[in-house]
């Protein structure tokens, strides 16, 4: 990066996510020509999810992205299941009809 190093940029992104309450962690891949173990350690400590050295193989990056995609799909599926089965956050009835009842609604016509 021209005006900001990748490790510093990673640390700033993680700080912003924490400060702003952003509820989804961005995926960060540090791609660098630096091959030292100290460089890898610093990148991961700053919050990088992956550390790749140049020249990077697109196949390796593609495999990592595919794993992350599957992980995210599972996260979304689990969140949906929690919403579906939570009585406090019930969005639809068991028959699929919308839950139009207010929290204190007694469901009586009187």
Describe this structure in words.
With 110 residues, this protein is mostly helical. The protein has a two-stranded parallel ribbon. It folds into two domains: 1-56, no CATH class; 57-105, no CATH class. 48% of the residues lie in helices and 7% in strands.
Largest sheet: 2 strands, parallel
Integer-rounded radius of gyration: 22 Å
Write down the overall geometry: elongated
Low-pLDDT residue intervals, each spanning 5 or more residues: none
Q: What quaternary form is this?
A: single chain
Number of H/I helices: 3
Structural class: mainly alpha
Short description:
With 110 residues, this protein is mainly alpha-helical. Helices cover 48% and strands 7% of the residues.
